[in-house]
Amino acid sequence: MPEIAVERLSKRYGETLAVDDLSFTVEAGRVTGFLGPNGSGKSTTLRALLGLIRPTSGHALVLGRPFHELANPVQTVGASLDASDVHPGRTGRSHLRTLSAAAGLPNSRVDEVLDMTELTPARDRRVKGYSMGMRQRLALAAALLGDPKILMLDEPANGLDPQGMRWLRDILVALAGEGRAVLISSHVLSEVEQTVDSVVVIGAGRLVMQGSLQDLIAGDQRPALVRSPRRDELRELLEQTGASATVDGRSDRMLVHHASLEDIGLLAAKHGIPVFELTRAVSTLEDRFLELTGEGGNVR
Amino acid sequence: MRILRSEWLKAISVPTAWILLGTMVLIEALAAGLVTGLVDVKELRGRDPASLLIGTPLSTVLIFTLGALLATNEYRHGTANQTFVITPRRERVIVAKLAVGLVIGVVSALLYITVNAGLALSILSNRGVPVDGDLAVNIYSGVGVGIVLGCVFGVALGALLRNQVLAIVVGLVLFLLRGVVALFIGTTVGKFFPGEALLALQGTPTNENLLSQTDAGLVLAATCLALAIAGVAATRYREIT
Predict the structure, then answer these.
(1) By the number of CB atoms within 10 A of the CB, which of A104, A132, A227, B31 ranks highest?
(2) Among partner residues A51, A52, A98, which is closest to B9 by beta-carbon distance?
(3) Closest residue of chain A to B18, computed from CA coordinates
């Protein structure tokens, strides 16, 4: 049984269909990236999983049950939906103590999670004086209070500096290594691409793809960048095979679509055409992500 | 018990709660001290004792606001997300908030009575102004009950409306626009409204258009109970977005 199972989930707010027949699963021992542009339905899905909103149809299940039916929700799921969800007048420690008291946990657990998130030196400062990075750490500390089997974090990398990103990456990978299921949402793939093992990509509330990070990369359709002194001759040959090419002014470069690097190389060799460069056009995984989700075109 | 402890910690861990309580104490000390200490003794003897002993309705308003903050802070600062993830049975959270509101109301009422009665009665005694003991007990117990119910009223209204500004404005209108309701809909029905009931509860100079002190307490308590039930139901079924 998967730790998290979203089954044909839909959520409608008036005329807006925020989540549309969405299904995916999250397994233990992995960091799963829940990716999609802003407004694609990620937060709505997480809220449905946490029982904060009711699905219009379908199911959002944790360990096979709706959240409110869990025997011990605190030790099952730790969640952070927004790092700003804290009263600015409380200190970091008093914020966590209000939560640990509700969960029936000892105060010593508060000190433990403060240590884990490296917030101990700031524990008695009011949260209004915290930086965004510190608030993210406090949100993670709150999620870790019950030592849960499952972590759900909404945009945990928001506002983190490079050092904070590395820290987050290390701690999430370590937590998944302990056998926990970690689900982190993001609209910026580069924030999580070094952290996640698998991805669930959504756009306009619908599933775009679910698979490993490699699956996401494997479907790459970026054009090939070719440099040749006999560019136009090679272009004609490629177009005869069904590929298409766009030339780059008067230079020796062109971008070739619908042809593999291998096919281009073999064709050039067969006709004795010298090739100075043959590579995928410079692009990032981010482009692939945007390509899949419609480059924001699906954003409501 | 653990939810109750959590809600108590929430209440006492924000500076606003202490500021509101401190303001109430200061206002009551000033009101009691200035009225009984500065007014001419002859005039004091001629005045209705109730008008000397009652501080200001502002105390009830401050404690009502404190109660409303207990409930609405969860939504204003987004802590409702964590609260209802840790305690999915939301009605327990609201019941705990109401209980904490009751305790804070009692503490506030005791503070009020200690400060106001302590100052006013000792100054009046020193200045040779007689005060009817039974009347004083009657007045202070009425005001105390009003403060307690005011706090619970705030929690219940906040739980129902969840918007902080809206809850406080609606509460202020209900409490402070005394007489306006009665003016528009008539005293027969108007006297049952919170502002009128609170006025009657404080035992202010006899007004035949108001309920008796006991009836006013019962009406205000029933209003709090109705609001609390509505607040629990609304919280249970609403979506936390």
Answers:
(1) B31
(2) A98
(3) A89
